[in-house]
Amino acid sequence: MKKYMVLLLLISGIPPLRADEGMYPVSEIRKLNLRAKGLQLDASQIFSVDSIGLAHAIVMVGGCTGSFVSPGGLILTNHHCAFGAVQNASSVDNDYIQNGFYAKSRAEEIPAKGYTARIMESYRDVSAEVLGSVNDSMEWSVRSRTITAKMRAIAAVTEKQNPGKSAEVAEMVIGQSYVLFIYAMLRDIRMVYVPPRSIGEFGGEADNWVWPRHTGDFSFLRAYVAPDGSPAGYSPENIPYTPKKYLKVNYEGADENDFVFILGYPGRTFRHRTADYLQYEEDIRLPYVAQWYDWQIGVMESMGKDDRAVEILLASRIKSLANTMKNYKGKLKGMNRLSLVEQKRNEDRALQSFIDADAGRQKKYGGVIGEIGSIYEDMRKKASYEATLDFLGSSRLFNVYYLLNNAIVQLQKPDSLRSSAFQAVNWDRTKQSMLDQYKSHHEPTDRLILTEMIYRASALPEDERIKPVDDILKGKASHDRISEWVRKAFVKSQIRTAAELELFLKKSPRDMAKLDDPMIELVRQLTPLILALRESKDRRDGVLNKYYGLYAEAKQMYQKADFVPDANRTLRFTYGYIRGYAPADATYFLPITTASGVTEKTTGVEPFDTPSRLMDLFKTKDFGVFRHKRLNDLPVAMLYNTDTTGGNSGSPVMNARGELVGLNFDRTFEGTITDYAWSEAYSRSIGVDVRYIMWVTSQFGGGGYLLKEMNVPVN
């Protein structure tokens, strides 16, 4: 396949340049020879501690990445990243999910409730401070909690020293290095233009993680600040934020084999873990979570089938679960296809041989891989029990009760003795997250979810029994009996609404003890088990933190080079080329799709139900400056070999000059495996072509004024 790719490139006269694995911290890109790869900028123009670069235009928003694209605080991100805000603002009468949202002026922009935008401003290494808080004599769980507490303490002190800023300490290399990041935090984010779901989610779950793709997965938001320029919550008096940097939109886009790069906030990758970790993922965690999410999706879809109000209420939860579920299935397919565990096992054997070849290395690192393996072996033995306790929280009401019970106990303590989430500095955020549980709470659905989880608990083997569950069932673990217990518990519940929760947060433990409430009694009995499980996980984390740090040291010695740290929700840089791929024998996919493909896929039935007005516009072929010259069509999506993962949704795809040419939103099904390993052959990311974004916004959405704001010609 690689020979075939090279042959294609040679025939076309394009040198066979290749991307490299790596989601590089922005502080490291100056070490890369990017000019030779095709970049036409200096590294300092992307990021520098001494000047303003492209990185200052990148924001973390809605759990994703976004970018400023105008001096008026206009943010471009994905449709699926703005989906939560759209759902919160929607009702049967104002169905923005189905019909989209368009503000004809800034006065019509509405709050994206719960959304903030974070912009990285500075960073510094705090490894010595964090690791200086622990020593080898500590019990493992104490070590884990001490490191976590130190990271939070450093962030808390930093926020006090920098009013209005957000601070976070990130573990860059597990057990080895820690970096403090300081962010500007914008708290008034508003919806500007969100296309209807039939465009923004064209293809739905059928096309999710699939190429070729024809999805207009984009939305526009705007950041606002107080009149004096300071961050503030929503107020009609607020004014648009003026970013230090915004991206120039290149409305001519990109073409096959063009150099591109991405800046964004990728989530978690796990490339520097052992074979035993991957074996646990493949055998235990991924299959269990995929199956459980699939079950919940089926329940929620059936609940909303004949009730649009319920469908809207549950839409965001379904979308989130479905995305993860299909991602995990893709990972499992990729792991099996590539024999990834065995590959990693061979790498670990080679590393162990290298360690054993030197007495000094053997003394320090000899038992590391085995110690790590013993942790995962222990996890395998307890997997069903632990998963059952963990996923009881899938029930919104159960989760609220658990958090409430914990909060009431914690709030009686002096602030310094409380768990971090309940300390004064964090309490408002924790309280709001509890209240937010009700935003997508549908009681009939929640009853079914809790019934199923208790039923699964009742079916655990004898040595994994959960006594509080057995007690409520009194030895009769039928599904009907459990369903009836759950029904009565919900009827007797006194915190079925956010307003009721607010009242109970003011009560004391003594008040709670007087309640005749089956749910609070179940939570009370389960809490010691949940806390014991947390203690067990802390102990494991302490062991893994220590030994994975040593594993990384040994691996660096073996490779005789530093390696790129795993992604961890901090700002990263990755580069590559617009390029197709061959996912199967005798199959090659080109890297650009067009409006003709949308027409071909459209059936008129969801999820391939393109709006009729958009179909009429396609027929005119009036694509103007947004026409792809070589393809003589409107480009829709593009494929490229950059290194991305979750969190890179909404990341800007930029050309060699740092101009916006696309918007990242997905990976291929085969590419989901990149959380564990990256390869030129199968690692492909998917983005919306900027020309499709501009054309749909102006011609279909009526947002010509937004194009003028971005200095883009209106077709």
How would you characterize the overall build of this protein?
Strands 2, 3, 4, 5, 6, 7, 8, 9, 10, 11 and 12 form an eleven-stranded antiparallel beta sheet that branches. Strands 1-14-13-19-20-21-18-17 form an eight-stranded antiparallel beta sheet. It has 715 residues and is of the alpha+beta class. The model is unreliable at 1-15 (pLDDT under 50). The longest helix has 42 residues, at 518-559. The chain has four domains: 17-116 and 187-264 and 573-709, Thrombin, subunit H (Beta Barrel), CATH 2.40.10; 118-186, no CATH class; 271-381, no CATH class; 384-560, no CATH class. The two termini are 41 Å apart. The chain is built from 27 helices and 21 strands. The chain is 46% helix and 15% strand. α10 (275-304) packs antiparallel against α11 (308-338) and α18 (443-458) crosses α20 (479-492).
Helix-strand layout with pairing:
Blueprint: H1 2-11, E1 24-25, H2 34-37, H3 43-46, E2 58-61, E3 64-68, E4 74-77, H4 79-89, H5 96-99, E5 101-102, E6 110-111, E7 117-125, H6 127-131, H7 140-161, E8 165-173, E9 177-186, E10 188-194, H8 197-200, H9 204-207, E11 219-225, E12 239-240, E13 259-264, H10 275-304, H11 308-338, H12 340-356, H13 359-365, H14 368-381, H15 383-391, H16 396-410, H17 424-436, H18 443-458, H19 467-473, H20 479-492, H21 498-504, H22 509-513, H23 518-559, E14 572-577, E15 581-584, E16 587-589, E17 592-594, H24 595-601, H25 612-620, E18 635-640, E19 652-654, E20 660-667, E21 685-689, H26 690-700, H27 704-709
Antiparallel strand pairs: 1-14, 2-3, 2-7, 3-4, 4-11, 5-10, 6-10, 7-9, 8-9, 10-11, 11-12, 13-14, 13-19, 15-16, 17-18, 18-21, 19-20, 20-21
